[in-house]
Design goal:
The complex is a heterodimer.
Chain A lengths: L3 H16 L15 H28 L3 H6 L12 H8 L11 H31 L5 H11 L4 H15 L5 H26 L2 H9 L4 H12 L1 H17 L2 H6 L7 H9 L8 H22 L1 H10 L4
Chain B lengths: L1 H7 L8 H6 L1 H21 L16 H8 L1 H32 L6 H13 L2 H11 L6 H7 L16 H26 L3 H9 L4 H12 L1 H16 L3 H6 L11 H11 L3 H28 L5
Helix pairs in contact in B: 4-15, 5-9, 5-12, 6-9, 7-9, 9-12, 10-11, 12-15, 14-15
Family (chain A): Belongs to the binding-protein-dependent transport system permease family.
GO biological process, one term (chain A): transmembrane transport
InterPro entries (chain A): MetI-like (IPR000515), MetI-like_sf (IPR035906)
């Protein structure tokens, strides 16, 4: 199967590619209003409208009252702006018997995302470090299995994990879900860190060895401070990935621990009661706002993260 | 005796001990979960496990039942339609957008931010937004009707024949930005001299793209193809959010079949057989790719 070295090169290529996205090169754009320019900007503008439309519809719908939604069209801006749907989505929307809104899901997601991100990055960075600088017999074989495993559909491995977690007595808890996120984040993160550590000058590592530094000292005192950018990329990757997860949340937690995405789906697709589209859209924006915030703040690093993380699928 | 041996020459097992200890989570994940878990599921797909996994083998029974089930054939058909169309459209749209972005335009960062932001959103959010836009009572259909075209019909999520295309629209909205980014990076990787040479020879731009640039971007295309394909097989959240598999079973997909049989219908054997089929599907995509990408290099 796939040789991890070559696969790593492919991914490293994707990583390097994203660096070349640094900006347009060459001469300044012409200031002419030629037919060619109109065609280019026109097509891009229409495409941009298509991509922006859903965001616009979400925001507009969430600011209207229900009577206005029933009468008007979904693209029209609100006549009377109301923030009630937002308050309701956050604090009192119902999922089944619980009517405490999305806030519970939000805090669950926070309690899932933070430890999962920290633990998975800690473990994966140490893995990558060991694979780059401290190879031992068999380490490449385990790494190959790990990378090939990244392509196996999650559905194939879900049930065995349920059994393992049940045996450990943590099936249905947040701890269990955090372990699951750590497991499935491992292939791509390990690859990311391994490639990064391999690219660092080896003399550095050798000098530290001669000075008598061991495995942990070198990791903490040399590797860690030198690789902050890659840690940020990994964080972006994990925060958005884990926040957006649905499958693991629904399989591995009990309803009281459901993450925000699962709760959102339950609120919007619940069959009981009158559909309140404005509340639904407010809830949808609230759930999407965390990864969107990460996206807009991180900018180019996000592109780098997904170029590396896209292998995850 | 053994103590002496260690004293003379350190045992192989203790060389690099810290690295080995640090790698225990990785080794456990690779061997127990990825390798062991996969084998476990494949083995149990040949049993008649119902509520609990049991090792009583029934041969290929589960697979025969699987392929006889309408819901499964619908799921597979949907996955094939969704998969082929996603591949074609996201590659074409992604490449066209990237080619336009590569014309040294202004506001490149703004355009990229707009095209890529859906990729940051979850499939649940994507599915719910498009469920709302495609809602026949309030969405596009009603807006067009209000403009005077009263017989206009566009209700993909409520029409069993075209529901998968409704999901496709949402899927493309979410994923094409990523393809555009990968393609743009590929285009930027092409040497500027090539463009100059083509211009000197008087080759039209579209011909340069089609016969020179695209063949040069083979590696980027293949990587993108694998990325899209392995994502397609897993499509689950999007369907759950947008249609819950409806109307009826018209928009079911394999991943949902697996989940429903494992955790709702308590028919584990069926779930295992279906997930094994998913594994086979992925292998059909990945193995030829791995062979082409990495197998050939040994000879060269």
């Amino acid at each position: 199967m796939a040789n991890p070295g070559s696969l790593a090169v492919t991914v490293a290529g994707a990583d390097a590619m994203s660096d070349s996205l640094a900006g347009p090169r060459g001469r300044r754009p012409q200031r002419s209003l030629s037919g060619r320019n109109i065609m280019i900007y026109g097509t891009l503008a229409i495409a941009a409208l298509y991509y922006l439309l859903p965001l616009y519809v979400m925001v507009v719908t969430s600011l209207k009252g229900m009577p206005e939604i029933r009468l008007g069209n979904i693209f029209a801006p609100p006549v009377e702006i109301t923030f009630e749907p937002w308050a309701k989505a956050w604090a009192s929307a119902c999922t089944g018997l619980n009517c405490d809104g999305l806030s519970r899901g939000f805090w669950n997601s926070v309690r899932i995302t933070i430890p999962s991100t920290v633990i998975s990055i800690a473990i994966a960075s140490i893995n990558g470090y060991a694979l780059a600088n401290w190879r031992f017999k068999g380490s490449e074989i385990f790494f190959t299995i790990l990378i090939v495993g990244a392509f196996i559909p999650y559905q194939v491995m879900i049930y065995p994990i349920v059994i393992v977690l049940r045996e450990m007595g943590i099936y249905g808890t947040l701890t269990g879900l955090i372990i699951v996120h750590t497991i499935f984040g491992m292939p791509i993160l390990t690859l990311l860190f391994r490639n990064y550590f391999v690219s660092l000058p080896e003399e550095l590592f050798k000098a530290a060895r001669i000075d008598g530094a061991g495995f942990w000292t070198i990791y903490l005192k040399i590797m860690l401070p030198m690789s902050l950018p890659i840690f940020v990329v990994a964080m972006i990757l994990q925060i958005t990935g884990i926040w957006n997860d649905f499958l693991f949340g629904v399989v591995f937690t009990r309803p009281e621990y459901y993450p925000m995405t699962v709760q959102l789906n339950n609120i919007v697709n619940s069959v009981q009661g009158v559909k309140e589209y404005n509340v639904n859209m407010a809830a949808t924006i609230l759930t999407g706002s965390v990864p969107l915030f990460v996206y807009f703040v991180s900018g180019r690093l996000f592109v780098r993260g997904i170029a590396a993380g896209a292998v995850k699928g | 005796m053994t103590g002496q041996t260690i004293a003379r020459r350190p045992n192989q097992l203790f060389r690099n001990l810290n690295a080995k200890i640090a790698s225990i989570p990785m080794i456990l994940t690779a061997v127990v979960i990825f390798l062991g878990g996969t084998l476990w599921t494949v083995v149990y797909s040949f049993t008649n496990s119902k509520l609990l996994p049991r090792l009583s083998f029934v041969g290929l029974d589960q697979y025969e039942r699987l392929w006889a089930a309408t819901r499964w054939t619908v799921s597979i058909t949907n996955l094939a339609i969704y998969g082929v169309l996603t591949l074609i459209f996201s590659l074409v749209i992604g490449f066209l957008l990237a080619a336009l972005m590569d014309q040294k335009i202004r506001f490149e960062n703004t355009f990229r931010t707009i095209f890529l932001y859906p990729f940051a959103l979850s499939f649940i959010v994507t599915g719910l937004v498009w469920q709302w836009i495609l809602n026949p009572e309030f969405g596009i259909q009603s807006v067009v009707r209000a403009l005077g075209w009263t017989s206009f019909t566009f209700d993909p999520l409520y029409n069993a024949d075209i529901v998968i295309y409704g999901i496709l629209i949402a899927g493309l909205w979410q994923g094409t930005g990523l393809v555009m980014c990968l393609m743009l990076a590929g285009l930027r990787g092409i040497d500027g001299e090539i463009w100059k040479a083509a211009r000197v020879d008087g080759i039209p731009t579209w011909k340069t793209y089609l016969f020179i640039v695209i063949p040069m971007m083979r590696a980027v295309f293949v990587t993108t193809l694998v990325i899209i394909a392995s994502g397609i097989v897993r499509v689950y959240d999007l369907v759950v959010a947008q249609t819950s598999g409806g109307p009826g079973i018209a928009s079911e997909v394999p991943a949902k079949y697996v989940y429903d049989y494992m955790f709702q219908a308590q028919n584990l054997g069926q779930g295992f057989a279906a997930s094994t089929m998913m594994l086979v599907t992925v292998a059909i995509i990945i193995v030829p790719w791995a062979y082409l990408e990495f197998g050939g290099k040994k000879r060269g």
